[in-house]
Amino acid sequence: xxxxxxKYIPQVHSxxxxxxxxxxxxxxxxxxxxxxxxxxxxxxxxTDLAIIRNSNADSVMAVYPxxxxxxxxxxxxxxxxxxxxxxxxxxxxxxxxxxxxxIDAELAGAYGVVxxxxxxxxxxxxxxxxxxxxxxxxxTSLNDDYxxxxxxxxxxxxxxxxxxxxxxxxxxxxxxxxxxxIIATGGKNGExxxxxxxxxxxxxxxxxxxxAEVFGQMMDKYRNEDIGE
Length: 229
Hints:
Blueprint: E1 33-35, E2 38-40, E3 42-45, H1 49-53, E4 59-62, H2 70-79, E5 84-87, H3 95-108, E6 112-115, H4 121-130, E7 135-139, H5 146-152, E8 156-159, H6 165-176, E9 182-185, H7 190-199, E10 203-206, H8 211-226
Parallel strand pairs: 3-4, 3-10, 4-5, 5-6, 6-7, 7-8, 8-9, 9-10
Antiparallel strand pairs: 1-2
Helix pairs in contact: 2-3, 3-4, 4-5, 6-7
C-alpha cells in the first residue's frame, strides 16, 4: 500500500486578528454531516458575536437558556459567515410558539433548528412538517425517547450527556445504526473528542473559551511584556 502524503496547505494570516479561536484538530477526524451540500464537522456552541466572527468552526449552534427571541437569532445570523443552527425551544417554550419561531429562523437564513430534550414529539412533528430545514433534536440521557424523536421527523440527533456523552452515544448508535447523523458534545480536550468520534459522532459541538477568558489571557501577556518576562 502506498503511504498517503499529507498535503501542504498554504496559510494567509491577518495582521490584526491575533486571538482567533480554532477548533481542536481532532475534530477533523469526524466524518462530518452534509447539510445543503455543505460538509459540517464542527459546530461552535456559543451566542457570543465576537467569538462567532473570529473562529474557524464550520458552523454555529446558537442555543441559549432563555426563551428564543428573534432579535438574538437575527443578530447571530447577520454576523456569522458560516451556517447557523438556531434554538427554538423545548423546555418552557413549546407548541405553536416554537413552530413559528422555527419558520422565522428558516426565513432568516438558518440551516436548521435545534429543539431541547423536553420538546414533545408531537411538537417536533409539527415543526418538521412546517419547515424546510432540518430539525435537530437534543438527547441528554437514555430516558429520552430518541427513536420517537426520529420517527416524529428529527433529521439529526444532538447528543449532550456531559461526561457520559460517549457512553450514551454508543448506546444510541447500537439502536439506530451507523448511518443516522449525530452531533455530540466533544468534551474539553482532544482525547475526549476522539473518544466521542469513535463512539459514533459525525460532528462535534465545541464550546470555545469566553471573550472574558480570551481577554484575560491577552492582558496577562501584556503585563508580562511590561515587566520584561
